[in-house]
């Protein structure tokens, strides 16, 4: 059942229930207490309605999960929230290598992430992002990950049982759990005794009134409700963020416990770890039950009234917050592990939807990359290319729109996929373990006062500083220093590429500066892309060819776009004059 439809009918039911409840209370006070007995089955019916609603929505999600296995999932994604676990873990382990923001942006990895993302939970979204930004450097680690992904691909019963438990956990609209678990919890619990007492007072005074019909009890109830309202609003400002997390944290613990009971020997390492962690922190669920709101009730305002009367959230929060502090490290591990399981399930679904892919092979040879029929995963009906480079990097030339930048990204993305999810979109891939860094599209920083050239210089410096370290650096660069004059650009580019070649870097560089190929042909492999001209204009085959492209198509593009003949003819005359002078 669609969640919006379920919410609509639930709200209608609640309105009817409120009316019936008000009638029963009124009749009970005015005529006979026996009418109040009718509230008991009414309360039972309310709980049953929400139970059935939740079950129907879950069944709908489960059917969708089975039906859409292997298909793309379109939904809005908040990358600021999705990257939160990655940011926290990177801060804790700053000595490890991660894809930096420039590389992630250059390779359009947000779009690659969307393609792979079929996760079912908030921890899964975040774990998948972390996996894609954290290349591994040990083949056994990748094979271990691949074994679990293969299990999810091939064992339909296992993945559907696992999927059901993850669907029960589901996604949190605004997920603040990482902030709760990775930061110090600053909660003042001095108000806890007052909250306990004030939760009892209104209930006790109402019961006293029903028994004695003493109107003073109604007055006490009214005063208690006013005090509780003040307390609720005062505390709410401090703990709302935590309260919204604790309900979902409760569900995470339950999910970990449920998943640990799945019968599957190949999943034993995860089962045992989840079982141990969930047992250790399970006491939190007993004290956090009911914290957070039930969707659908909130929209009617009923929950707000009940929570204010009983100070329910406040008392439950104070009851479990110390336990959360105590088991904070265990909860972090539990959160990450459930996320990794969901992320691997997502990767399995992505693999099943691919027309073809291959598992990478890794070599101890430094600065080695070989790939056959390599394509970019984001491009439909992409033209494939093969490449074999060892020790030397690549200088790539070619005319505009011929495919240079796409090929750079194709190499970079596949190198990332090989060392994160253990596949490539190629028929064969063999390479060294690389650190991967790029400088493809640094932008002007107008607000920061940085020019395009300055941003390029910064982007290249970080690559230079990373080169020469423990692992070879795969550095992918599109047009070195395009933001400055030709003389300085060419000479600085030559020295940078020589430096990278000497410092354990495999550079893949696209350029329009033919002078680079002449000066560096002994240190770099030379390849190019080009186009053909026919009656319809320029035709690109997007095929990689060995050698250097000596032709230019910038003026041809102007002509193709119907620029005035005067501009085209005068430009060609100027170019001919410059070339003639160069020859002389």
From TrEMBL:
What keywords were assigned to this record?
ATP-binding, DNA-binding, Membrane, Nucleotide-binding, Transmembrane, Transmembrane helix
Give the residue range of the signal peptide. none
- Species of origin reads Clostridium pasteurianum DSM 525 = ATCC 6013
Offer an example of a GO molecular function term for this protein: ATP binding
The family database entries (InterPro entries) matched by this protein are listed as: DNA_mismatch_repair_MutS_C, DNA_mismatch_repair_MutS_sf, MutS, P-loop_NTPase
The segment(s) forming the DNA mismatch repair proteins mutS family domain are 391-576
Q: Which residues cross the membrane?
A: 7-27, 33-52, 191-209, 215-231
Q: What is the lineage of its organism?
A: Bacteria, Bacillati, Bacillota, Clostridia, Eubacteriales
Identify this protein by name: DNA mismatch repair protein MutS domain protein
Q: Which Pfam families match?
A: MutS_V
């Amino acid at each position: 059942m669609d969640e919006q439809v379920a919410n609509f009918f639930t709200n209608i039911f609640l309105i009817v229930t409120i009316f019936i409840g008000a009638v029963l209370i009124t009749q009970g006070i005015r005529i006979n207490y026996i009418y109040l007995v009718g509230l008991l089955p009414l309360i039972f019916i309310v709980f049953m309605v929400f139970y059935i609603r939740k079950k129907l929505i879950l069944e709908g999600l489960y059917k969708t999960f089975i039906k859409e296995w292997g298909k793309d999932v379109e939904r809005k994604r908040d990358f600021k929230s999705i990257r939160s676990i990655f940011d926290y873990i990177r801060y804790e382990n700053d000595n490890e290598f991660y894809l930096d923001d420039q590389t992630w942006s250059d390779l359009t990895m947000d779009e690659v992430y969307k393609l792979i993302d079929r996760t079912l939970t908030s921890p899964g979204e975040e774990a998948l992002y972390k996996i894609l930004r954290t290349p591994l450097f040990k083949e056994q680690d990748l094979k271990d990950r691949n074994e679990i992904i293969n299990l999810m691909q091939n064992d339909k019963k296992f993945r559907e049982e696992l999927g059901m438990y993850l669907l029960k956990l589901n996604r949190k609209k605004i997920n603040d759990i990482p902030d709760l678990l990775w930061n110090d919890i600053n909660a003042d619990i001095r108000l806890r005794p007052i909250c306990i007492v004030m939760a009892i007072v209104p209930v006790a005074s109402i019961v006293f009134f029903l028994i004695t019909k003493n109107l003073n009890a109604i007055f006490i109830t009214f005063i208690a409700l006013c005090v509780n309202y003040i307390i609720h609003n005062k505390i709410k400002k401090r703990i709302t963020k935590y309260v919204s997390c604790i309900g979902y944290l409760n569900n995470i613990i339950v999910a970990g416990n449920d998943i640990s009971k799945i019968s599957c020997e190949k999943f034993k390492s995860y089962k045992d770890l989840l079982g141990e962690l969930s047992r250790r922190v399970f006491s939190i669920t007993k004290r956090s039950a009911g914290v957070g709101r039930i969707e659908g009730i909130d929209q009617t305002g009923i929950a707000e009234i009940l929570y204010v009367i009983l100070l329910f959230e406040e008392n439950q929060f104070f009851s479990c917050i110390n336990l959360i502090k105590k088991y904070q490290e265990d909860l972090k591990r539990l959160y990450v592990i459930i996320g990794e399981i969901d992320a691997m399930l997502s990767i399995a679904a992505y693999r099943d939807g691919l027309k073809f892919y291959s598992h990478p092979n890794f070599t101890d040879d430094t600065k080695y990359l070989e790939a056959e029929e390599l394509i970019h995963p984001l491009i439909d009906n992409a033209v494939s290319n093969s490449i074999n480079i060892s020790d030397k990097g690549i200088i790539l030339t070619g005319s505009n729109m011929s495919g240079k930048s796409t090929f750079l990204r194709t190499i970079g993305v596949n190198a990332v996929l090989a060392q994160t999810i253990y596949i490539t979109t190629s028929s064969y891939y063999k390479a060294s373990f690389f650190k991967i860094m790029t400088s493809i599209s640094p932008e002007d920083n107008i607000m920061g006062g940085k020019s395009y050239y300055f941003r390029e210089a910064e982007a290249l410096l970080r690559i230079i500083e990373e080169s020469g370290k423990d692992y070879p650096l795969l550095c992918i660069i599109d047009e070195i220093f395009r933001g400055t004059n030709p003389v300085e650009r060419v000479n600085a580019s030559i020295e940078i590429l020589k430096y990278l070649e000497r410092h354990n870097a495999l550079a893949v560089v696209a350029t329009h500066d033919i002078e680079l190929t002449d000066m560096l042909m002994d240190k770099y492999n030379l390849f190019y892309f080009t186009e053909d001209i026919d009656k319809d204009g320029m035709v690109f085959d997007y095929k990689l060819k060995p050698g250097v492209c000596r032709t230019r198509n910038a003026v041809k593009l102007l002509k193709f776009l119907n620029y005035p003949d005067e501009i085209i003819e005068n430009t060609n005359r100027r170019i001919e004059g410059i070339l003639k002078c160069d020859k002389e």
